[in-house]
Design a protein that fits this description.
This is Heat shock factor 2-binding protein isoform X3. With about 325 residues, the protein is an all-alpha fold. The chain is about 75% helix and about 0% strand. The chain has 14 helices and no strands. It is elongated.
């Protein structure tokens, strides 16, 4: 055994073990190189894909800007077209025969639905302080102004207000809500037209009943009478008069009215420089005094008893605007 297992054999065995370890190390390094090469290939592919996506995003962003520009152009065109068409319709609706023709066409309900949605969108954008404010001469303002004018003229005709009182409760409710959203002094012409439409609708018994039962009515009247525009205050008082002069309506509102209505504001309007507003405010106070007397068990004054009958064409509230 000593002759066989000598130092040469032991050296040989160590050398073979070293060679095996070296071979194993070389194999491991080769595997790592292959893994690195594979990862590098995947990285290059991912970078190329990322670069392609960036190029696609740039192209899509450019297309998006172009589409936005086209949509804005289309919006401006449609708004201008709508404003022009509705202004023409507003002018045509000043004739009672035109209102009758519109009713006979059978599309009035669809038109009123569109009008209500358009008014609601415009005014809610108007009260959103984050949005750019519209000017009084914008196409959007002229569009909704013409829509409100058409509704006002429809309500000025007997058959038109009959339709509004029976089939347009959503529109009437929307107009009441929107008047409450609009800030004092903002777009007074639009407020005046909506108030005139509501005022004309109260000539109809069903319309008067619907409007008088709205819970937001008295707070709305308080809000509108604080408006700095005299025409808004005038139309608000006229709408109020149409309610307080109705024997069947006012007694049910008397308690809430006496508790929350700002009579001091009406007293202030009596001293207005606007002659019609001054006269209407004075008449309103007299009517309120008569109604208060009636609710207390007295009799109404002759002035209230001479309240014009509904649908009286001589009444100023159903004049075509």
């Amino acid at each position: 055994m000593p002759k066989v297992i000598n130092s040469d054999l032991i050296d040989t065995i160590h050398e073979e073990r070293s060679l095996d370890a070296f071979q194993e190390l070389c194999d491991r390094e080769q595997q790592e190189r292959e893994n690195c090469l594979h990862i590098q290939t995947r990285l290059d592919a991912a970078l190329n894909e990322c670069q392609n996506e960036k190029q696609e995003k740039l192209v899509l962003k450019q297309q998006l800007w172009e589409c936005r520009g086209q949509l804005q152009q289309q919006k401006d065109f449609c708004t201008e077209l709508g404003a022009s068409c509705c202004t023409l319709l507003w002018s045509a609706s000043q004739k009672e025969e035109a209102i009758r023709d519109i009713l006979a066409n059978g599309k009035l309900e669809d038109f009123l639905s569109i009008a209500g949605q358009t008014l609601e969108t415009f005014i809610k954008l108007l009260v959103d302080e984050a949005k750019p404010q519209q000017s009084d001469n914008s196409h959007e303002h002229n569009f909704v102004l013409a829509l409100a004018g058409v509704v006002t003229n429809i309500a000025a005709v007997s058959c038109g207000r009959d339709f509004l009182s029976s089939s347009a409760h959503i529109l009437l409710g929307t107009m009441l809500q929107l008047l409450g959203l609009m800030k004092p002094g903002v777009f007074p012409k639009l407020k005046v037209l909506m108030l005139m439409a509501l005022y004309n609708t109260t000539i109809n018994v069903n319309g008067l009943k619907f409007i008088s039962e709205r819970p937001e009515l008295l707070p709305l009247m308080c809000h509108l009478l604080e408006d700095p525009d005299p025409e808004v205050c005038l139309q608000s008082l006229r709408l109020l008069q149409s309610l307080i002069l109705e024997r069947e309506i006012m007694p049910g509102m008397a308690t809430d009215f006496r508790r929350s209505f700002p009579l001091s504001r009406i007293n202030h309007l009596v001293s207005s420089c606007h002659p019609t507003l001054k006269q209407t405010a004075q008449e309103t106070l007299e009517d309120l005094a008569a109604v208060s007397k009636l609710c207390s068990g007295g009799t109404m004054t002759s002035k209230v008893e001479l309240q014009p009958q509904l649908d009286n064409n001589s009444n100023t509230r159903n004049i075509l605007y």
